[in-house]
Every structure is written in C-alpha cells, then in structure tokens.
Amino acid sequence: MKFIKAEEIQKHWFSDEKDYEEVLKAISTCLGKHIIFAQVKEDTLKAMVVLDITKVVVIKALAIKDENLLPIVIRLVKQKYKNKDLICEVDGIDLRGFGFVEGRYVRSEHLEDSFLDESGLVERYPIKVSEKQIVLNYLSQFFEAGRFYSEREVNEVLKAHISFQDYVTLRRDLFDFNYLTRNLDGGTYEKIM
Q1: What's the CA gap between 141 and 41, in Å, rounded?
Q2: Fewer C-beta within 10 Å: the chain N or C terminus?
Q3: Which stretches of the chain are DSSP H helices?
Q4: Nearest residue to 83 via CA among 126, 124, 53, 59
Q5: Is 46 helix (H, G, I), strand (E, B) or coil?
Q6: pLDDT of residue 25
Q7: At what angle are helices 129-140 and 167-176 packed, to 10 degrees?
Q8: What would the pLDDT profile of 48-64 be if each residue is shown by its tens digit?
Q9: Is 124 exposed, middle or buried (0-12, 13-18, 19+ CB in 10 A)?
Q10: CB of 191 within 8 A of CB of 140?
Q11: 10 Å Cβ neighbour count for 29?
C-alpha cells in the first residue's frame, strides 16, 4: 500500500464506474485533510482506502478487490494513526473482527495497538509494568484455556506473535503476572482463566 494523490486515481483501475464515482464523491466530502492509500498491480486496483483526517480518522471509502487485503489495510490505518479514534462510514463493510463496534474503533479500548507493528506483531516490550500488562494481556489471548502447553509450545506461540527475539522474558512474565500457570517441574503451562 502506498500513499497516492487524488489526481493520480485512474478510472480504468475500477471494473465498475460506480465504484470510481463513489471514491471521488468520498474524497469531495472530506472535512479535513484527505489521505488515500492504494495498491495497484498490473494497472488493476487491488485495494484503496480514502481517509478523512480531523480529530478522528474517518474511513470514507474502501475498495478491496482481494479480501485478503482487508486486514492489511485496516492494520495500516491503525498503525499510521495510533493516537486517533477511527470511524468507518462505508456501508456494507463489517469490521467487528477488527475491534470496531457500531462502526467505531475507540483507541482507549485498544491500548495494545501502540505496541504492534503493521503486521499485528508485538514490536517492542515496554519497561513500565502497566504497559507490560497490556502486552501480556494481548499475548495471553493466543493461548487456549484448559489446554496444557510445553515450554517449547509456549515459546512457539510467542514467536508467532512478536517481531523481536526475547520470547523467554515474555514467557517468564506471563507466569509472573499470572497469565499462565506452570506445574512444579516448570515444564507444563496452562492459561489462567
């Protein structure tokens, strides 16, 4: 995905002229600064999002030709505008799976976002205890309640959700902060409910 200017949008990118007109209309209704991100491959539009940047970020238009790109587009917007709430004004798009409730994504309800990279991986482990708990709470959701994990399996789950190498500290802190329990020999872990 790359930033483009409104005048760079090409009509032939769109298979339906109605979609093209809707994108132009969305740009014209922006109250603040409009930002457009698009991915075009072989002169065909794969994904485009039109954002209206005011005190919040409003998704004014969303053209996704490959459904696998929707999570990438949403993560890009969340990552780029970490300090702003998001609103989706696009009809027919269900973003509940991305943390939106009734078209709104409230930052204060998703504190973990400030620790995630564009791929949704934890990119850093903070020093402050209160911030550590945000990251640990986020990571704990990837463990199934009632399932026992070996130390190696815990490490693998953590490695799959972080972009740095220190999974050992995270594993220890998940235990120390009571997100995981382990048996007396320290070899088996379980999520605390």
Answers
A1: 35
A2: C
A3: 17-28, 70-80, 129-140, 151-159, 167-176
A4: 53
A5: strand
A6: 92
A7: 100
A8: 999 999 999 999 998 88
A9: middle
A10: yes
A11: 14
